[in-house]
């Protein structure tokens, strides 16, 4: 499996495209700049199967409708944030005064609880990692040694918890109980900034010391 990190939008939110040997792909968090993202997919000759959202903050969902309509693919989101997609007050675009209100149509598939999920030939585990937001999830691909962590865990940092529904203690528990329980060699694909590993964050992340 191959993956590509594509920073999108004014906040440079990381969108990820995971691709298998058949050139099928999953798209995670298409935050903005749908033409940039679709151009990459078309240039590579990829066949998208689904959009999966780690959470529903505005900077992760801005291109959702464009991408799903262009490729005729479904969107997945956790049930605790299902109503956030069409609501700028919940997804944060109203709060941040970014110049436009971000709205997306409801998701096609609602994720409830932790589970193993298969889409095409992609098999992965859904980990509930709330704290940055109530419905934040991380997607763990065991065979590829990687986890798409959204805004839960960053290189040398953790997600902010001062937004509506955020909870600092809950985020720390999510990181320690779900993410740091993964093998140390697991690559962490975060919602912002560079890729890291579980081992690196266990050793050097100052926000996790003394928990």
From TrEMBL:
- Which cofactors does this protein require? Zn(2+)
Keywords annotated in UniProt: Hydrolase, Metal-binding, Zinc
Domain Metallo-beta-lactamase: start-end pairs: 12-192
Mind telling me which InterPro entries this protein's record contains? MBL_Glyoxalase_II, Metallo-B-lactamas, RibonucZ/Hydroxyglut_hydro
The GO terms this record gives for MF are: hydrolase activity; metal ion binding
Per the UniProt record, one Pfam family is: Lactamase_B
The protein in question is named: Metallo-beta-lactamase domain-containing protein
**UniProt source species:** Sporosarcina globispora (Bacillus globisporus)
């Amino acid at each position: 499996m191959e993956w590509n990190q594509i920073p999108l939008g004014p906040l440079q939110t990381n969108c990820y495209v995971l691709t298998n040997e058949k050139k099928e792909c999953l798209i995670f968090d298409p935050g903005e700049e749908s033409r940039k993202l679709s151009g990459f997919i078309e240039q590579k000759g990829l066949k998208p199967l689904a959009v999966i959202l780690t959470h529903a903050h505005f900077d992760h969902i801005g291109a959702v409708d464009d991408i799903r309509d262009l490729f005729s693919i479904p969107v997945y989101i956790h049930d605790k944030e299902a109503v956030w997609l069409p609501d700028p007050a919940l997804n944060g675009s109203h709060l941040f005064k970014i110049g436009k209100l971000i709205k997306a149509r409801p998701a096609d598939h609602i994720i409830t609880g932790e589970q193993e999920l298969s889409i095409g030939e992609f098999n992965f585990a859904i980990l509930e990692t709330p704290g940055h937001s109530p419905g934040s999830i991380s997607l763990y691909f065991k065979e590829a040694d990687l986890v798409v962590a959204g805004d839960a865990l960053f290189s040398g940092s953790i997600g902010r918890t001062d937004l509506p529904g955020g909870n600092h203690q809950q985020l720390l528990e999510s990181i320690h109980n779900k993410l740091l329980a993964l093998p140390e060699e697991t690559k962490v694909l975060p919602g912002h900034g560079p890729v890291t590993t579980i081992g690196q964050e266990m050793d050097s992340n100052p926000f996790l010391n003394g928990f």
